[in-house]
Structure prediction request, 239 residues.
Amino acid sequence: MSHRINLEYCPQHVAIIMDGNGRWARQHGLPRLAGHRAGVLNGRRVIDVFCEYQVRYLTVYAFSTENWKRSRSEIDGFFKILAGRISQDSQFLNERGVKVRHLGRLDGLPDELQENTNKLIELTKDNTGMVLSIALNYGGRVEILDAVRRFIIQGVPAHDVDETSFSRYLYTSGIPDPDLFIRTGGEMRLSNFLLWQAAYAELYYTPVLWPDFDRVEIEKSLLSYSQRQRRFGGLEPGE
Ligand code: IPE
Ligand code: IPE
Ligand code: MG
Prediction:
């Protein structure tokens, strides 16, 4: 039996800034890494619910190019937790037919994390279910600059540079733009996530901290999305 709520529209692509692990830990009187452990574990639950709603693309922000400013111990601890979770959740993701992609720069990350991520991408490469993109060591500006560099290196003539051709050089090549852009943890900013792709995304902010972002909270975000009027600069029919 399905427990799904009825929605008039469901987003095809959901992007999430998974924020609030540190504050969750503080609320529980725990060290920040305990918050990251709870947050990384929550990924599985969230993926399950979005699979149930047949969302085709889910893109999650796990580590930004700015997160290197944090303490060495937090960064190392976070990467270790993430590497472990990626390997433990491989089977679960594969069984659900999820195809995993990485957005960002893998080089610079610890070997174990690179290996586990690459193994998961390889394991799931022929799957035809939800496409899960993990933005890890990702920055929206670096992504755009990387695309410009590749354009120049390949000698693409100026008149061939348009929105469609440019999009193909981004890390998200082949993935449609996000429809619903969620940020947990209460901040109302983009923090360098999907700067190009989010041009017309519907934004949804919630004060709920990432480890507490569960089925009920996901359904609230989907319901909010289904009530939006997307005009893309045009007008409502009949106006
Ligand atoms: C998000 O949680 C996870 C990462 C950026 C790795 P934070 O660690 O930013 O949690 P807060 O914002 O301090 O609560
Ligand atoms: C954004 O959260 C990055 C990720 C969730 C991976 P941050 O906690 O790093 O963002 P700021 O510092 O509040 O903008
Ligand atoms: Mg934060």
In short: The chain has a mean pLDDT of 97. The chain has one domain: 9-138+177-220.
